[in-house]
Amino acid sequence: MPDATDASLAEQYEAYPYPPRDPRDEAKRLVVGSPSHLREVDFWVFGARRPRSRPLRALVAGGGTGDGAIMLATQMARLGQPGRVTYLDRSAAAMAVAQARAAARGLANIVWQRGSLLDLPESGLGPFDYIDCCGVLHHLPDPAAGLAALLAVLAPGGGMGLMVYAPHGRTGVYMLQDALRLLAPPDRPPAARLDVAKRLMRNLPETAWLRMNRYFSDHLSGGDAGLYDLLLNPRDRAFAIPALHELLAGASLAITCLVEPLRYDPACYLPEPRLRTRAAELDPLARAALAEAVAGNMSTHVVYCTRAGEVAEPADAMAPRSVPVARETAGEDLARSIGADGTLTMLFNEIRVPLALPPLAAPILRLIDGRRSVADIAAAMAERGTDPAAFARAWSETWAKLSAANRILLAPPA
């Protein structure tokens, strides 16, 4: 239930809508990310089995200034996905920014609702096939109650995309939050608290951990809203992987993807063979927790999940009719990025992870356009003299590595 801290939170987002966005920028670029990229939803939630012709009923719960809703609605319009996105947020100021952004894009597939996600069970909204809740659960008085409210309007067979803060990559944040609770108590007006925070940032000693943390930039480039949300938010908790798993399991939710899956493989960070062998002996949850602890650079966790008994079996990437698709970076561009040594380097918050790809990966990637099926690609490769068995081996390896990096996925049936 809402409490006094919740009232301060509501006041914050009216004064400083987050994240700061200018609707005029919609003419320049689309803000793209995770969760709720339509390619990801198609694959990580529905297993690339839900036909594109089937209307998608989506909810963005806690939509802020609109990043998730604008991205998803734009991608649905571009790809001809019928359905609509329902935007929900308590902040009138944030919703006004989101609406102006939608108007700048001419989007007609968004429904606007002002309110709290905690009121969803009695709202009359839904059911929804997909629910986005990005950056919200960690601000609630009871995150489990928030999940329960979302589940109340999730349609059978549906899924969710969630983002929560992670502790290790936010080193330094909670130290300064403690300091600012003393210097600028939450009962002071937002503008007065922000002034104190700016003064503190100008006078931080060199030893302050936040100075050394390069894994986010809200306090540097996010304006007043970014600084306030990072250091003055009245309720902010972080979830390490075991705690996040416990939260989701308590709601009978199963994780279908930690984005990107490769980041959560400790082998990426442990080149020493004995350490890799020991890590490989751990169960999947422990391996993900190990990767988080060793990498130290994860400031958020993005997950896709469904009800535990409703996990969709992903489509078979080796099936002739499957259609591989680049999530965002075109296959041609991925091919050009492969080094002379046959490796494609992934960059995860300053950690470089080289992926050794087979020699046939580059020509295969150049044929991935979201329209050609695996059979089409195999036929094109055969015309160039590639043995079908050699193609199958190369595609299997390429798919395994690039789907784990969230770069190549499968398109849903037309």
Topology:
Layout: H1 4-15, H2 38-45, E1 56-61, H3 67-79, E2 83-89, H4 92-105, E3 110-114, E4 128-134, H5 143-151, E5 154-165, H6 173-183, H7 190-202, H8 209-212, H9 218-221, H10 223-231, H11 241-250, E6 253-259, H12 273-280, H13 284-295, E7 300-307, E8 324-326, H14 331-336, E9 343-348, E10 351-356, H15 361-366, H16 374-383, H17 388-404, E11 408-410
Parallel strand pairs: 1-2, 1-4, 2-3, 4-5
Antiparallel strand pairs: 5-7, 6-7, 8-11, 9-10
Helix pairs in contact: 3-4, 7-10
Architecture overview:
GO terms for molecular function: methyltransferase activity. It holds the Pfam family Methyltransf_12. Keywords: Methyltransferase, Transferase. One of its GO terms (biological process) is methylation. InterPro entries: Methyltransf_12 (IPR013217), SAM-dependent_MTases_sf (IPR029063). With 414 residues, the protein is of the alpha/beta class. It folds into 2 domains: 4-168 and 237-310, Vaccinia Virus protein VP39 (Rossmann fold, 3-Layer(aba) Sandwich); 324-410, Orthogonal Bundle (Arc Repressor Mutant, subunit A). 40% of the residues lie in helices and 17% in strands. It has helices spanning 4-15, 38-45, 67-79, 92-105, 143-151, 173-183, 190-202, 209-212, 218-221, 223-231, 241-250, 273-280, 284-295, 331-336, 361-366, 374-383, 388-404, and strands spanning 56-61, 83-89, 110-114, 128-134, 154-165, 253-259, 300-307, 324-326, 343-348, 351-356, 408-410. The strands form 3 sheets. A 7-stranded mixed beta sheet has the order 3-2-1-4-5-7-6, with helices on both faces. It has a two-stranded antiparallel ribbon with strand order 8-11. It has a two-stranded antiparallel sheet with strand order 9-10. Helix 3 (67-79) runs parallel beside helix 4 (92-105) and helix 7 (190-202) packs across helix 10 (223-231). The longest helix is centred in the C-terminal third of the chain and has 17 residues, at 388-404. The chain is globular, with a radius of gyration of 22 Å. The chain starts with a helix and ends with a strand.
